[in-house]
User: Which sequence fits this backbone?
């Protein structure tokens, strides 16, 4: 079964850091672009970051640029999101998602995890 | 960034109805438009990619059309499990952007 499982979320104080992980099973992530998408409580979907199959191309939403770092370990079939200088506006459910292409350009998100919740509050 | 605007924001429909949701891009995105369904408390699922391609396993009552800036998702013969929020997303340029969502209430 094709599956993504996120972990690493939790309650964190403003200004602190957190690292999210996404473990894939049932497919090889090395063949696809991968993404992080977040959803604030009661709100819509916001793309956070994407990384192509070999990590040569990466991009971020302006709202997280300079604070978040996406990475992948194809050997471990895993995706990561390092989040620094967290703000209240970063509070959301964070989804890991698989692209349907090697590149995150022109990519639909065809497999999603169940998400991990990040709450930024003092 | 390309802005995606969906209409309506919500709608009420009955089982068996034909439902149409529209999505408009602030600039041309060719055919790089995807549709997702999100049921309450669940992760989104892709329904349609590149405007009109049905994702594997998605019922044929879902269909998509459009190109350029105007796109449509149609559900023909609404089922109880279709109660959900639907999002469009452009993948033509980065950052990929989503519409605000359309809540379909049965």
Assistant:
């Amino acid at each position: 079964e094709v599956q993504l499982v996120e972990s690493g979320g939790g309650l964190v104080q403003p200004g602190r850091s957190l690292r999210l992980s996404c473990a894939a099973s049932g497919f090889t992530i090395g063949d696809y672009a991968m993404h992080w998408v977040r959803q604030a409580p009661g709100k819509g979907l916001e793309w956070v970051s994407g990384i192509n199959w070999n990590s040569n191309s990466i991009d971020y939403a302006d709202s997280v640029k300079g604070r978040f770092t996406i990475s992948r370990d194809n050997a471990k079939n895993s995706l990561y999101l390092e989040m620094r200088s967290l703000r209240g506006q970063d509070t959301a459910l964070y989804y890991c998602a698989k692209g349907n292409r090697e590149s995150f350009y022109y990519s639909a998100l065809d497999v999603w995890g169940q998400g991990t919740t990040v709450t930024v509050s003092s | 960034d390309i802005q995606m605007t969906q209409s309506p924001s919500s709608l009420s429909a009955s089982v068996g109805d034909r439902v149409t949701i529209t999505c408009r891009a602030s600039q041309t995105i060719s055919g790089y438009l995807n549709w997702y369904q999100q049921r309450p408390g669940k992760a989104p699922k892709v329904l349609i990619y590149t405007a009109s391609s049905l994702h594997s396993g998605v019922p044929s009552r879902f269909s998509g059309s459009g190109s350029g800036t105007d796109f449509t998702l149609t559900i023909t013969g609404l089922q109880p499990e279709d109660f959900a929020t639907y999002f469009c997303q452009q993948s033509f340029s980065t950052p990929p952007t989503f519409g605000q969502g359309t809540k379909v209430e049965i």
